[in-house]
């Protein structure tokens, strides 16, 4: 069903076209209609719901939530990161992280090891149990991502990545660049 026509933004709100021959991607769009932006917002909502739904069900069985999933994800992607780095990546308070990290540690999914140079530093690692849970959660999302990427094709995937990078506040990544987020995996510590 086609979107109803809308009035374009006033000229003062429109993007201006750069005169340089090396214009940024999307610079040829004078403006995007509000209904197109709302449709994008709708798609992000539904995509997130579909992507997180199966993982949410697994987490609920363990009395965990999405915050636990985010911790598991980032500890898996960056084994040995310290608590301060995780706080920065997640953009939450120390108190909030304690509420999430505490159960993961008590239930044997995450361990804290002292830093090699500063023994006061707490470096986070997944246990074998944590690695298995994080992998199970990833597998619930992997196939959906794979199917969508294959259906869209390479140029669309690259465009999607540019849009996603554009939505991310550069200062809000806690030093975790999407393409550089993973360090080579270290052996998982077991309990």
Write the layout of secondary structure elements.
Elements lengths: L33 H28 L4 H12 L5 H8 L3 H13 L3 E5 L7 E5 L1 H25 L1 H14 L24
Describe the structure.
A hairpin with a 7-residue loop joins strand 1 and strand 2 (122-126). The longest helix has 28 residues, at 34-61. The chain has 191 residues and is mainly α. Strands 1-2 form a two-stranded antiparallel ribbon. The protein has helices spanning 34-61, 66-77, 83-90, 94-106, 128-152, 154-167; strands at residues 110-114, 122-126. It has a domain at 33-138: Arc Repressor Mutant, subunit A (Orthogonal Bundle), CATH 1.10.10. The protein is built from 6 helices and 2 strands, in the order ααααββαα.
CATH architecture classification of the domain at 33-138: Orthogonal Bundle
Overall body shape: globular
In the CATH hierarchy, what is the superfamily of the domain at 33-138?
Winged helix-like DNA-binding domain superfamily/Winged helix DNA-binding domain
Strand content: 5-15%
Largest sheet: 2 strands, antiparallel
Strand order of the largest sheet: 1-2
Low-confidence stretches: 1-21, 179-191
């Amino acid at each position: 069903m086609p979107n109803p026509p809308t009035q374009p933004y006033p000229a003062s709100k429109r993007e201006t076209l750069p005169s340089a021959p090396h214009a940024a991607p999307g610079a040829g769009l004078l403006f995007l209609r509000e209904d197109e932006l709302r449709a994008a917002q709708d798609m992000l909502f539904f995509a997130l719901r579909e992507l997180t739904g199966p993982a949410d069900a697994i987490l609920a069985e363990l009395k965990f939530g999405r915050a636990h999933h985010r911790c598991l994800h980032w500890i898996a992607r960056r084994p040995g990161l310290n608590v301060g780095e995780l706080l920065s990546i997640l953009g939450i308070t120390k108190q909030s992280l304690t509420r999430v990290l505490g159960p993961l540690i008590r239930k044997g999914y995450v361990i804290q090891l002292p830093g090699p140079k500063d023994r006061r530093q707490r470096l986070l690692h997944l246990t074998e149990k944590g690695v298995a849970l994080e992998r199970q959660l990833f597998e619930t999302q992997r196939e959906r991502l794979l199917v969508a990427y294959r259906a869209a094709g390479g140029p669309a995937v690259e465009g999607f990545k540019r849009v996603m990078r554009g939505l991310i506040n550069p200062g809000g990544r806690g030093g975790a660049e999407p393409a550089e987020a993973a360090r080579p995996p270290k052996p998982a510590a077991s309990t």
